[in-house]
Amino acid sequence: MSTAVTPGAGTARGRPRTDGHVLEARGLSRSFGGRTVVDDVSFTVAPGRMTGFVGANGAGKTTTMRMLMGVLRASSGQVLWDGRLITAADRAGFGYMPEERGLYPKQGVLDQLGYLGRLHGMSRRDALAEAARLLERFGLAGRAKDRLESLSLGNQQKVQVAAALLHGPAALVLDEPFSGLDPVAVDAMVELLRERTARGVPVLFSSHQLELVDRLCDTLVVLSGGRVLAAGTADELRRAGPRRHRLHCEQDTGWVRDVPGVRVVDVDGPAAVLELEDRAARARLLEQAVRHGLVEFAEIVPALTAVYREVTR
Ligand SMILES: Nc1ncnc2c1ncn2[C@@H]1O[C@H](COP(=O)(O)OP(=O)(O)OP(=O)(O)O)[C@@H](O)[C@H]1O
User: Fold this and answer.
1) What is the value of pTM for the model shown?
2) Inter-axis angle of helices 124-137 and 153-165, to 10 degrees?
3) ipTM of the complex
4) 30 shares a domain with 99
5) Looking at the domain assignment, is residue 212 inside a domain?
6) Which residue lies with its CA nearest to atom 12 of ligand 1?
7) Does 53 map to a domain?
8) How far is C-alpha 36 from the chain's CA centre?
9) How far is the CA of 223 from the centre of ligand 1 (A)?
10) Mean pLDDT of the chain
Protein backbone atom coordinates (compact mmCIF):
# COMPACT_ATOMS: atom_id res chain seq x y z
CA MET A 1 0.00 0.00 0.00
CA SER A 2 1.28 3.46 -0.78
CA THR A 3 0.13 6.26 1.46
CA ALA A 4 0.79 9.94 1.12
CA VAL A 5 -0.34 12.06 4.01
CA THR A 6 0.27 15.75 4.33
CA PRO A 7 1.30 16.66 7.86
CA GLY A 8 -1.53 18.49 9.58
CA ALA A 9 -1.46 21.66 11.59
CA GLY A 10 -1.41 20.15 15.07
CA THR A 11 0.00 16.96 16.56
CA ALA A 12 -0.40 14.89 19.66
CA ARG A 13 2.89 16.35 20.82
CA GLY A 14 1.79 19.95 20.38
CA ARG A 15 1.50 22.48 17.64
CA PRO A 16 4.46 22.93 15.34
CA ARG A 17 6.35 26.17 15.80
CA THR A 18 6.17 28.71 13.07
CA ASP A 19 9.03 30.94 14.22
CA GLY A 20 11.92 28.61 13.33
CA HIS A 21 13.44 27.48 10.07
CA VAL A 22 12.24 24.83 7.66
CA LEU A 23 14.55 22.33 6.00
CA GLU A 24 13.15 20.91 2.81
CA ALA A 25 14.09 18.21 0.32
CA ARG A 26 12.43 18.95 -3.00
CA GLY A 27 12.51 16.29 -5.69
CA LEU A 28 15.92 14.97 -4.64
CA SER A 29 17.29 12.14 -6.79
CA ARG A 30 20.64 10.42 -6.91
CA SER A 31 22.01 7.70 -9.15
CA PHE A 32 25.20 5.69 -8.87
CA GLY A 33 26.46 4.19 -12.13
CA GLY A 34 23.06 4.44 -13.76
CA ARG A 35 21.19 2.98 -10.77
CA THR A 36 18.76 5.39 -9.12
CA VAL A 37 18.91 4.92 -5.35
CA VAL A 38 17.03 8.07 -4.34
CA ASP A 39 14.13 8.90 -6.61
CA ASP A 40 12.31 12.23 -6.48
CA VAL A 41 12.26 12.49 -2.69
CA SER A 42 10.40 15.44 -1.19
CA PHE A 43 9.63 16.19 2.46
CA THR A 44 9.96 18.97 4.98
CA VAL A 45 11.51 19.03 8.42
CA ALA A 46 9.51 21.65 10.26
CA PRO A 47 10.85 23.94 12.99
CA GLY A 48 10.58 22.46 16.44
CA ARG A 49 9.55 19.10 15.05
CA MET A 50 11.30 15.81 15.44
CA THR A 51 11.13 14.04 12.12
CA GLY A 52 11.98 10.35 11.96
CA PHE A 53 13.41 8.95 8.75
CA VAL A 54 12.67 5.25 8.49
CA GLY A 55 13.08 2.57 5.84
CA ALA A 56 14.73 -0.77 5.26
CA ASN A 57 18.48 -1.22 4.73
CA GLY A 58 19.39 0.36 1.42
CA ALA A 59 16.19 2.43 1.20
CA GLY A 60 18.24 5.58 0.59
CA LYS A 61 18.17 7.37 3.96
CA THR A 62 21.90 8.00 4.26
CA THR A 63 22.16 9.08 0.63
CA THR A 64 19.31 11.56 1.15
CA MET A 65 20.85 12.94 4.34
CA ARG A 66 24.18 13.38 2.58
CA MET A 67 22.45 15.39 -0.13
CA LEU A 68 20.68 17.49 2.52
CA MET A 69 24.07 18.27 4.06
CA GLY A 70 25.76 18.89 0.71
CA VAL A 71 28.41 16.20 1.18
CA LEU A 72 26.94 14.41 -1.83
CA ARG A 73 25.73 16.14 -4.97
CA ALA A 74 22.14 15.50 -5.98
CA SER A 75 21.60 14.18 -9.53
CA SER A 76 18.53 16.40 -9.52
CA GLY A 77 16.34 18.26 -7.08
CA GLN A 78 16.99 20.92 -4.49
CA VAL A 79 17.55 21.45 -0.81
CA LEU A 80 15.77 24.50 0.60
CA TRP A 81 16.20 26.36 3.87
CA ASP A 82 13.31 28.63 4.71
CA GLY A 83 12.01 28.27 1.20
CA ARG A 84 15.17 29.41 -0.61
CA LEU A 85 18.11 27.42 -1.97
CA ILE A 86 20.34 26.37 0.88
CA THR A 87 23.89 27.77 1.07
CA ALA A 88 27.16 26.40 2.45
CA ALA A 89 26.91 29.00 5.23
CA ASP A 90 23.46 27.70 6.22
CA ARG A 91 24.79 24.17 6.36
CA ALA A 92 27.82 25.22 8.38
CA GLY A 93 25.37 26.17 11.12
CA PHE A 94 23.78 22.69 11.16
CA GLY A 95 24.68 19.77 13.37
CA TYR A 96 25.38 16.65 11.31
CA MET A 97 26.08 13.17 12.50
CA PRO A 98 27.21 11.23 9.43
CA GLU A 99 26.86 7.47 9.10
CA GLU A 100 30.63 7.11 8.84
CA ARG A 101 30.98 9.14 12.08
CA GLY A 102 34.42 10.73 11.65
CA LEU A 103 35.97 12.01 14.85
CA TYR A 104 39.68 11.57 15.53
CA PRO A 105 40.30 8.29 17.38
CA LYS A 106 43.68 9.29 18.79
CA GLN A 107 42.63 12.69 20.13
CA GLY A 108 41.33 13.35 23.64
CA VAL A 109 37.56 13.64 23.95
CA LEU A 110 37.28 17.14 25.42
CA ASP A 111 40.15 18.57 23.34
CA GLN A 112 38.50 17.25 20.23
CA LEU A 113 35.10 18.72 21.06
CA GLY A 114 36.76 22.04 21.91
CA TYR A 115 38.51 22.01 18.54
CA LEU A 116 35.28 21.22 16.67
CA GLY A 117 33.47 23.99 18.51
CA ARG A 118 36.15 26.45 17.41
CA LEU A 119 35.72 25.28 13.81
CA HIS A 120 32.10 26.35 14.22
CA GLY A 121 33.16 29.80 15.35
CA MET A 122 32.89 29.35 19.12
CA SER A 123 35.50 30.74 21.46
CA ARG A 124 37.76 28.08 22.99
CA ARG A 125 36.33 28.82 26.40
CA ASP A 126 32.68 28.51 25.30
CA ALA A 127 33.42 25.38 23.27
CA LEU A 128 35.11 23.64 26.19
CA ALA A 129 32.41 24.71 28.64
CA GLU A 130 29.62 23.45 26.39
CA ALA A 131 31.53 20.24 25.61
CA ALA A 132 32.00 19.59 29.33
CA ARG A 133 28.29 20.18 29.92
CA LEU A 134 27.30 17.74 27.16
CA LEU A 135 29.75 15.10 28.40
CA GLU A 136 28.26 15.47 31.85
CA ARG A 137 24.76 14.94 30.44
CA PHE A 138 25.95 11.71 28.84
CA GLY A 139 27.69 10.53 32.00
CA LEU A 140 31.09 10.90 30.34
CA ALA A 141 32.57 13.69 32.45
CA GLY A 142 35.13 11.27 33.86
CA ARG A 143 36.33 10.34 30.35
CA ALA A 144 36.97 13.88 29.12
CA LYS A 145 40.73 13.48 29.02
CA ASP A 146 40.73 9.98 27.50
CA ARG A 147 41.50 9.31 23.88
CA LEU A 148 38.34 8.70 21.85
CA GLU A 149 39.48 5.23 20.74
CA SER A 150 39.73 4.07 24.36
CA LEU A 151 35.95 4.53 24.80
CA SER A 152 33.41 1.81 24.04
CA LEU A 153 31.59 2.18 20.72
CA GLY A 154 28.42 3.37 22.47
CA ASN A 155 30.37 6.01 24.37
CA GLN A 156 32.12 7.12 21.18
CA GLN A 157 28.67 7.51 19.71
CA LYS A 158 27.67 9.84 22.55
CA VAL A 159 30.73 11.98 21.81
CA GLN A 160 29.62 12.10 18.17
CA VAL A 161 26.23 13.37 19.23
CA ALA A 162 27.87 15.93 21.51
CA ALA A 163 29.92 17.10 18.51
CA ALA A 164 26.73 17.64 16.50
CA LEU A 165 25.02 19.56 19.32
CA LEU A 166 27.96 21.61 20.57
CA HIS A 167 27.61 24.81 18.61
CA GLY A 168 23.86 25.32 19.07
CA PRO A 169 22.99 24.16 15.54
CA ALA A 170 20.14 25.74 13.59
CA ALA A 171 19.09 22.27 12.34
CA LEU A 172 20.10 18.72 13.18
CA VAL A 173 20.58 15.92 10.65
CA LEU A 174 21.49 12.73 12.48
CA ASP A 175 22.15 9.40 10.80
CA GLU A 176 21.16 6.64 13.23
CA PRO A 177 22.13 8.55 16.35
CA PHE A 178 20.54 5.97 18.65
CA SER A 179 22.17 2.82 17.28
CA GLY A 180 24.25 1.07 19.89
CA LEU A 181 23.18 3.27 22.80
CA ASP A 182 22.07 1.73 26.10
CA PRO A 183 18.62 2.70 27.45
CA VAL A 184 20.01 5.33 29.84
CA ALA A 185 21.98 6.95 27.02
CA VAL A 186 18.89 6.83 24.79
CA ASP A 187 16.94 8.71 27.46
CA ALA A 188 19.72 11.30 27.83
CA MET A 189 19.77 11.80 24.09
CA VAL A 190 15.98 12.02 23.82
CA GLU A 191 16.04 14.76 26.45
CA LEU A 192 18.82 16.66 24.67
CA LEU A 193 17.02 16.49 21.32
CA ARG A 194 13.72 17.57 22.88
CA GLU A 195 15.45 20.62 24.35
CA ARG A 196 16.57 21.54 20.83
CA THR A 197 13.14 21.10 19.26
CA ALA A 198 11.64 23.16 22.10
CA ARG A 199 13.88 25.99 20.89
CA GLY A 200 12.48 25.61 17.37
CA VAL A 201 15.29 23.56 15.83
CA PRO A 202 14.18 21.18 13.06
CA VAL A 203 15.56 17.69 13.74
CA LEU A 204 15.78 14.86 11.22
CA PHE A 205 17.10 11.51 12.34
CA SER A 206 17.15 8.07 10.80
CA SER A 207 16.54 4.97 12.84
CA HIS A 208 15.56 1.33 12.61
CA GLN A 209 14.22 1.42 16.19
CA LEU A 210 10.54 1.97 15.46
CA GLU A 211 9.38 1.96 19.08
CA LEU A 212 11.80 4.78 19.70
CA VAL A 213 10.70 6.64 16.59
CA ASP A 214 7.10 6.25 17.75
CA ARG A 215 7.94 7.64 21.18
CA LEU A 216 10.00 10.52 19.93
CA CYS A 217 8.77 11.73 16.57
CA ASP A 218 6.19 14.31 15.62
CA THR A 219 6.50 13.42 11.96
CA LEU A 220 7.69 10.42 10.01
CA VAL A 221 9.03 9.98 6.53
CA VAL A 222 8.95 6.38 5.30
CA LEU A 223 11.36 5.61 2.49
CA SER A 224 11.35 2.46 0.38
CA GLY A 225 13.42 1.75 -2.70
CA GLY A 226 14.51 5.39 -2.78
CA ARG A 227 10.96 6.77 -2.80
CA VAL A 228 8.81 8.35 -0.11
CA LEU A 229 6.02 5.88 0.63
CA ALA A 230 4.37 7.87 3.37
CA ALA A 231 4.91 11.04 5.35
CA GLY A 232 2.96 12.55 8.17
CA THR A 233 2.46 12.44 11.90
CA ALA A 234 2.37 9.02 13.53
CA ASP A 235 -1.35 9.57 14.17
CA GLU A 236 -2.00 10.50 10.55
CA LEU A 237 -0.18 7.41 9.35
CA ARG A 238 -2.18 5.28 11.75
CA ARG A 239 -5.44 6.79 10.52
CA ALA A 240 -4.43 6.26 6.89
CA GLY A 241 -4.36 2.51 7.44
CA PRO A 242 -7.44 0.33 7.94
CA ARG A 243 -9.42 1.13 11.11
CA ARG A 244 -9.85 -2.01 13.13
CA HIS A 245 -11.81 -2.94 16.25
CA ARG A 246 -11.37 -5.63 18.82
CA LEU A 247 -14.48 -7.42 20.03
CA HIS A 248 -14.56 -9.68 23.06
CA CYS A 249 -17.69 -11.57 24.15
CA GLU A 250 -18.45 -14.22 26.74
CA GLN A 251 -19.41 -16.64 23.97
CA ASP A 252 -17.80 -17.66 20.67
CA THR A 253 -17.79 -14.77 18.17
CA GLY A 254 -18.14 -16.88 14.99
CA TRP A 255 -21.52 -15.15 14.40
CA VAL A 256 -19.73 -11.95 13.35
CA ARG A 257 -19.16 -13.49 9.90
CA ASP A 258 -22.89 -13.12 9.17
CA VAL A 259 -23.22 -9.47 10.16
CA PRO A 260 -23.60 -7.33 6.99
CA GLY A 261 -20.95 -4.60 6.63
CA VAL A 262 -18.47 -6.33 8.94
CA ARG A 263 -15.19 -7.61 7.54
CA VAL A 264 -13.61 -10.25 9.70
CA VAL A 265 -9.84 -9.96 10.04
CA ASP A 266 -9.57 -12.67 12.67
CA VAL A 267 -11.85 -14.73 14.90
CA ASP A 268 -10.39 -16.65 17.80
CA GLY A 269 -13.08 -18.08 20.11
CA PRO A 270 -14.58 -15.25 22.16
CA ALA A 271 -12.30 -12.63 20.54
CA ALA A 272 -12.44 -11.10 17.07
CA VAL A 273 -10.68 -8.38 15.08
CA LEU A 274 -12.96 -6.57 12.65
CA GLU A 275 -13.23 -3.77 10.11
CA LEU A 276 -16.58 -1.98 9.96
CA GLU A 277 -18.04 -0.54 6.78
CA ASP A 278 -20.06 2.24 8.41
CA ARG A 279 -22.02 3.30 11.49
CA ALA A 280 -24.93 1.05 10.58
CA ALA A 281 -22.61 -1.97 10.54
CA ARG A 282 -21.29 -0.93 13.93
CA ALA A 283 -24.83 -0.68 15.33
CA ARG A 284 -25.75 -4.12 13.93
CA LEU A 285 -22.59 -5.62 15.38
CA LEU A 286 -23.09 -4.15 18.85
CA GLU A 287 -26.73 -5.21 18.98
CA GLN A 288 -25.72 -8.83 18.38
CA ALA A 289 -22.67 -8.54 20.64
CA VAL A 290 -24.85 -7.56 23.60
CA ARG A 291 -26.88 -10.72 23.04
CA HIS A 292 -23.67 -12.80 23.07
CA GLY A 293 -22.38 -11.32 26.31
CA LEU A 294 -20.35 -8.30 25.22
CA VAL A 295 -17.20 -7.89 27.33
CA GLU A 296 -15.19 -5.37 25.32
CA PHE A 297 -15.43 -3.43 22.06
CA ALA A 298 -12.57 -1.06 21.31
CA GLU A 299 -10.70 0.51 18.43
CA ILE A 300 -7.24 -0.92 17.93
CA VAL A 301 -4.53 1.74 17.89
CA PRO A 302 -1.82 0.05 15.87
CA ALA A 303 1.79 0.28 16.96
CA LEU A 304 3.96 2.21 14.59
CA THR A 305 5.73 -1.04 13.72
CA ALA A 306 2.42 -2.37 12.38
CA VAL A 307 1.78 0.84 10.42
CA TYR A 308 5.27 0.66 8.99
CA ARG A 309 4.75 -2.95 7.87
CA GLU A 310 1.42 -1.97 6.35
CA VAL A 311 2.79 0.93 4.29
CA THR A 312 5.90 -0.94 3.14
CA ARG A 313 4.00 -4.15 2.28
N1 LIG B 1 28.79 5.78 -3.10
C2 LIG B 1 27.94 4.85 -3.52
N3 LIG B 1 28.19 4.16 -4.65
C4 LIG B 1 27.32 3.23 -5.12
N5 LIG B 1 26.17 2.90 -4.49
C6 LIG B 1 25.87 3.55 -3.34
C7 LIG B 1 26.74 4.55 -2.81
N8 LIG B 1 26.17 5.04 -1.67
C9 LIG B 1 25.01 4.35 -1.51
N10 LIG B 1 24.84 3.46 -2.51
C11 LIG B 1 23.70 2.57 -2.69
O12 LIG B 1 22.52 3.32 -2.52
C13 LIG B 1 21.51 2.55 -1.89
C14 LIG B 1 20.98 3.33 -0.71
O15 LIG B 1 21.96 3.35 0.30
P16 LIG B 1 21.79 4.18 1.65
O17 LIG B 1 23.05 3.99 2.43
O18 LIG B 1 21.38 5.55 1.33
O19 LIG B 1 20.58 3.42 2.35
P20 LIG B 1 20.06 3.50 3.85
O21 LIG B 1 18.59 3.64 3.79
O22 LIG B 1 20.80 4.55 4.59
O23 LIG B 1 20.46 2.05 4.39
P24 LIG B 1 20.86 1.55 5.89
O25 LIG B 1 19.60 1.54 6.69
O26 LIG B 1 21.36 0.16 5.63
O27 LIG B 1 21.91 2.46 6.40
C28 LIG B 1 22.16 1.22 -1.53
O29 LIG B 1 21.78 0.26 -2.48
C30 LIG B 1 23.63 1.51 -1.58
O31 LIG B 1 24.37 0.36 -1.92
Assistant:
1) 0.81
2) 140
3) 0.97
4) yes
5) yes
6) 37
7) yes
8) 24
9) 12
10) 89
Q: Which of 36, 41, 53, 61 to probe ligand 1 with, by most ligand atoms within 8 A of CB? A: 61
Question: Which amino acid belongs to residue 32?
Answer: F
Looking at the structure, tell me whether residues 149 and 178 fall in a common domain.
yes
Please state the φ and ψ torsions of residue 107, each to the nearest 5 degrees.
-90, 150
Q: Please report, for the domain that includes residue 41, its CATH number.
A: 3.40.50.300
Residue 156 and residue 299 in one domain:
no
CA–CA separation, 156 vs 133, rounded Å?
16
Atom number in ligand 1 closest to CA 55 = 21
Q: Which atom of ligand 1 is nearest to the CA of 60?
A: 18
Separation CA 117–CA 186 (nearest Å): 23
Domain limit, last residue, from 234, 250, 268: 234
Residue 18 Cα, ligand 1 centroid: separation in angstroms? 33
For atom 27 of ligand 1, the residue with the nearest CA is 57
293 DSSP 8-state letter:
T
Look at the chain and report how many structural domains it folds into: 2
The predicted-structure confidence for 70-125, as pLDDT tens digits, reads as follows 999 999 999 999 999 999 999 999 999 998 777 888 999 999 999 999 999 999 99
Residue 28 reports pLDDT greater than 70: yes
DSSP 108: B
Residue 147 has pLDDT above 70, yes or no: yes
Protein residue with least CA distance to atom 3, ligand 1: 32
Q: How confident is the model at residue 2 (pLDDT cuts 50, 70, 90)?
A: very low
Whether 17 is covered by a domain: the verdict is no
Q: Are residues 31 and 77 in the same domain?
A: yes
Whether ligand 1 lies within 6 angstroms of the CB of 6 is answered as: no
Q: Is 37 in the pocket of ligand 1 (CB under 6 A)?
A: yes
